[in-house]
Prior knowledge:
Blueprint lengths: L1 E7 L4 H11 L7 E8 L2 E8 L2 H5 L11 E7 L14 E5 L2 E11 L2 H10 L9 H11 L5 H9 L4 E9 L2 E6 L8 E5 L2 E5 L2 H7 L2 E5 L5 E5 L2 E5 L9 E2 H7 L5 E2 L2 E2 H15 L6 E4 L5 H11 L7 E3 L12 H11 E3 L1 H4 L3 E6 L6 H12 L4 E6 L21 H4 L2 H8 L3 E4 L2 H8 L6 E2 L1 H4 L8 H14 L1
Parallel strand pairs: 14-23, 17-20, 20-21, 21-22
Antiparallel strand pairs: 1-4, 1-10, 2-3, 2-4, 5-6, 6-7, 7-8, 8-12, 9-10, 9-11, 12-13, 15-16, 18-19
Adenosine monophosphate binds next to helix 12.
Amino acid sequence: MCGIVGVFGHKEAAGLAYTGLFALQHRGQESAGVAAADGPNLACRTGMGLVSDVLGGSVLDALPGDAAIGQVRYSTTGDSNPANAQPFLIRHHRGPISVVHNGNLVNSIDLRAELEEEGAIFQTTTDTEALLHLVARSRTHDVVDAIVESLHQVRGAYSLLFMVPGRMIAIRDPYGFRPLCLGRLGGAWVVASESCALDLMGAQFVREMDPGEVLVVDVAGIHSLKPFKETRSAFCIFEHVYFSRPDSTVFGKPVQRVRKRLGEQLFREQPVQADMVVPVPDSGVYAAMGYARAAGLPFEMGLVRNHYVGRTFIQPTQEIRNDNVRVKLNPVRDILAGRRIILIDDSIVRGTTSRKIVRMCREAGASEVHMRVSCPPTIGPCYYGIDTPRRDELIAATNSVDGIRDFIGADSLGYLSLPGMLEAMKTDEDSACTACWTLEHPVAIPAVDAQQLRLFERGQR
Ligand code: AMP
């Protein structure tokens, strides 16, 4: 879970990258950083915490130059520690090179083991560092060739930005798991995970990068390469369900519009008699709008969110997560008392949040609480860059819908079906990644994980 941004050809490149990262803060709150290129020199500042904490004040003064790349991060591969904060900036035989990565490489453990056996020294526990080693080892003269050669050795999800003196290289993996878009700001080029970052930077949206595209940006302009074998796409549907910001356009579709359609479809599949529709803010808001519109029921903000608390899920322990639901959400008694409500959220992961919220609504006087979820039951972890827990911690991997309903204490529970979700998204299973609902992995996952999934399956039978 990361957001990345790059700027080329603007005298305030680092400041713009900082602005873009601000709009991508929802994609990661653990660490932030920016690297800038000033002629032949690259400099970098990273740290743990939010964008404003890490890069505020006079930090950007140390990052002059007309090109910059930045990242906000929440770890999926690698621990949460300062060494893992990106951008990485290293020096190799071709000079300085900096990189930021959104996604997850599925063969990084094997790659790392091979590299270490051959004597490579690692400073971080991330998959991205293995990629840098491959680039450094490549015998090709030009760095773009080295990057392409290295990428032929990795598998998985990657939206990447590399920066070397005089050039920025933006890459989307051949499956296009994670989004990446291109924008224009005056004479400068801008690249960002989501279009909402372009908006804040004042840049015009040009287009999304294609899956498998390598875009080289230099003073001459942009130059697009397609060095990988063409393959099916595997756009991450969860970007639309939960992760991306509603004001972004992702995989060619406005996120808020998709979420409303998911809600409308959810009503068609899972109607129920009630007085009003109440979203779990913020993740369930647009699906709830769609559901309410289709049902002809009032949409009411029966839960109010405190915006000064981070996302509950992004907390290190179960204990903290439980406390945080109360800190984050407060029921509005005046709206809920004596009413039959349909509570809408985008997904149920462990079930602990929903359980708390259902109880909260009942305590506030709701007479019936019907839970509706705008995606199918989440039964598998993500190996491509979304932080979901292990399979045995996913409530839908070990429980039936009735079992989950009992656990969360709702009067009824209904999920959107997989065909319904694909229909609402106007996509099909062959061009999207649905692995968290189907366990069908577009790129083979590591053997040890595949075995774990099989053992789990056997245990469930
Ligand atoms: P849980 O209590 O584990 O069932 O959490 C469900 C809540 O977490 C829902 O409100 C989702 O919007 C949210 N959620 C789902 N996936 C993620 C994720 N990968 N990271 C953070 N929050 C998530």
